[in-house]
Amino acid sequence: MTDNSADSEPQGEPLEGEPPEGEPLEGDIGPASAAPRVSLTREAVGPESGDSANGRAEALRRYEAEREERRRRANAASGRIALALAAALLAFLFYDSVRTAVQAHSRGGDWVYPPAVIAGVCGAALAALVVGAVRRRR
User: Fold this and answer.
1) Contact 111, 99 (CB under 8 A)
2) Cβ neighbours, 10 Å, residue 130
3) Half-sphere exposure of 52 (CA within 13 A, CB side)
4) Do residues 100 and 115 make contact, with C-beta atoms less than 8 angstroms apart?
5) Predicted confidence (pLDDT) per residue in 47-91, tens digit
6) CA–CA dist 69, 41 (Å, integer)
7) For residues 53 and 30, what is the distance between their CA atoms, to the nearest angstrom?
8) Is the pTM of this model over 0.70?
9) Which string of DSSP letters, residue by residue, matches 33-101?
10) Whole-angstrom Cα distance, residue 72 to residue 65?
11) In this predicted model, what pLDDT tens digit does every residue of 3-45 receive, in sequence order?
12) I need a labelling partner for 76 at 20 to 30 A (CA). Which of 7, 83, 121, 130 fits?
């Protein structure tokens, strides 16, 4: 039998740029890439952990409260943006429908049913949006 040393795995130090054996490669996914979890018991932490556990719980409550406040601010900002976009769309539709109704009236065509009704609906929706935003702001 011949010795195929080129086919066998190298022994010793890994090549430059390669992670040590057992460590995941960059971009790996799956169980091999997960870091080992370490769990601490009360005996392992020590007797002074009672105060630090209360401190950790308080820090966690503060963190959750800050996180909730950031979430509320982000939701409020996105709501204002959505409201502004909806108002802009309704204003454009109202303007376009009124312009179409005026052009149709000047030509002697039907101006009440399609364009004037759409303008009225868009105007009412825009007014309701603005009134709702003003009431919510108070």
Assistant:
1) no
2) 14
3) 6
4) yes
5) 555 678 899 999 999 999 999 999 999 999 999 999 999 999 999
6) 33
7) 32
8) no
9) GSPPP----HHHH-TTHHHHHHHHHHHHHHHHHHHHHHHHHHHHHHHHHHHHHHHHHHHHHHHHHHHHH
10) 11
11) 555 555 555 555 565 556 666 666 667 665 555 544 455 444 4
12) 121
